[in-house]
Amino acid sequence: MECSYTLLAGPPDLDEIRRKLKEKPLKASPVPEGEDPWSYTRLLTVDYAFETETVMYDLVKNKPKAPSTIIAGNFSFDSLHHDLAGGMLCKFRLTECKTGNCGNVPDVYAAFVQGGNNIKEVLYDPTQFPGEEPRWNFLYGIINTLYTPAENGAGDEQTVDTLYGKCKVHFSRPEDKRFRRTIKNCDIKSDLDYSRIGGLQPVNYEQDATYLQNMKIDADIVVIEAVEIVTFKSPFDWRWGFTVESRTHVEITNRTMHYVKRYCEDNQTSADCAAERFGALSVGHKLYEKVLLGQESKKNELHKLVGEYRKHLFEMGDSHTCEKHSSMFAHIVREARHSSEADWKAVIMNPENEPILHVLGNVLGSLGNSQSLKIAREVLFEQGPEFLEDYLFGAAHATSTDEKWHKQMMYWMAETKGDKTKRFWKIANTVATILRRRCERTPSTQNACKKGKERIVVKFITDISDCKRDRCYLKALQVLQNIPVAMQVFAPFFNFLGFFSIEISILPVLRSSPWTALFQSQQCRTDGSTSCD
């Protein structure tokens, strides 16, 4: 079969060409004559207006009357560099503060992967406010809303590390040019003190951000609507606490294209370009590790507060207690959260503080983090073994759910195992109390502990129940009373009942424990009763 094609063409329509040129004349080359065109690139400056409102409330019904803070103004987004790996460098800078409460806000640089907006590294300009450490502000909040901590190319549904802990991140496109990202179901970490209110800890974090693009060609984000929610609760009563909710609206106001000489070579990564070309300093990667949260930095006052406590104790006498004692103790704990190892060492080694080292042991335990355990073991316990119980008492009352601290406590317990001396059982009893609080933290953790899916709890039970002598079994049961979860978790470790002479001694322990059903069944086996339904 033969195919024939006919090309129909005629003379060009000169009038049409002239009309189009008149409407949109050809622009001269943006590259100056004599310059290498490859040394120039197209960069953008996009101006945005923003407004964010943060409200704090105890119950949703009280939200309309709750106090709130509004920050509004303008900021610009400058694209600065594109690297060969698909990365892009941009700069965020505050151009106008309309509400007058923006504070000192240095320029912030963000290195991210184009297409997915996957954040890689965040940096700041240290020259604008010399001597000031990077502190969380609304620009970091906008960047945290705009860019995702998810990994590029790993799917629309991921579980990743975020500023608040390990969270589920979901990306979707509800309709053309509209995108949505949600962050929820977080396993909140407690190694940072997010609250100025003692005794409370974050229990929930959620983010819901929607982005609208103007067109597929330029793909500029023209509108951002975002809601962030953080909930704080007391571990002792879930009715005590509050929720902080922030709503942010960002809208484009202007878009300008520039043809400029390249700031960096193509083979330089975006983060390297920011550091080498613009002198920016890193504040971290996905987690903004070096950005300070909470109150403005000030000179650490641990030494001063400990001195005031010591003076009050001497003036009132050892046997005296008053409300001021607990208040001063709380202030020491709060300041201790921001104290370095050097600060602690200076306080503990100060001969004047020897009479209150027991109190400092309580403080270190109350902090509930791996650094406090390290200081206690390497510094405090060197002053005397009697301070062990002070640390353990504070640790047993700590509200921290810091995963790293829990593991370090387990490692410490394992180191002292040996032939299971008194020291081992003291540490084990405290670890059991800590793990009990871990299990009772949320309905999810309660369920995980009941079903034996909380690995650290199962590991603890296994280690404690690894006994060869009757007295060890009795001690193990006394410790395990602190973790009253479902019987199916513990059943394998009670098989020894009825086979050891110690069982009569064990039954009173079971009688006073949460395991009433187990006690009744073993009582039946022991006394030979047949009516034990």
What is the element layout, followed by pairings?
Layout lengths: L13 H10 L16 E18 L10 E15 L4 E11 L10 E6 L4 E7 L13 H9 L10 E5 L3 E11 L2 E11 L12 E13 L7 E13 L7 E21 L8 H9 L2 E4 L17 H15 L6 H14 L4 H9 L7 H11 L2 H11 L7 H9 L6 H13 L6 H18 L3 H8 L4 H10 L5 H11 L6 H4 L12 H9 L4 H12 L6
Antiparallel strand pairs: 1-2, 1-11, 2-3, 3-4, 4-5, 5-12, 6-7, 7-8, 8-9, 9-10, 10-11
Helix pairs in contact: 4-5, 5-7, 6-8, 7-8, 7-9, 9-11, 10-11, 11-13, 11-14, 14-16, 16-17
Task: Describe the protein.
Helix 14 runs parallel beside helix 16 (503-511). The protein is an alpha+beta fold and 533 residues long. Helix content is 34%, strand content 25%. The relative contact order is 0.08. It starts with 13 loop residues before the first helix and ends in a 6-residue tail after the last helix. It is elongated, with a radius of gyration of 31 Å. The model is unreliable at 4-8, 495-519 and 525-533 (pLDDT under 50).
Summarize, please.
One of its GO terms (biological process) is lipoprotein metabolic process. InterPro entries: MTTP. The chain is α+β, with helices and mostly antiparallel strands.
**What is the count of distinct domains?**
2
Corresponding CATH architecture of the largest domain: Roll
- Residue ranges: pLDDT <50 for 5 or more in a row? 4-8, 495-519, 525-533
Topology as a string of helices (H) and strands (E)? HEEEEEHEEEEEEHEHHHHHHHHHHHHHH
Distance between the termini: 93 Å
Estimated share of beta-strand residues: 25-35%
| CA-based gyration radius | 31 Å
Largest sheet: 12 strands, antiparallel
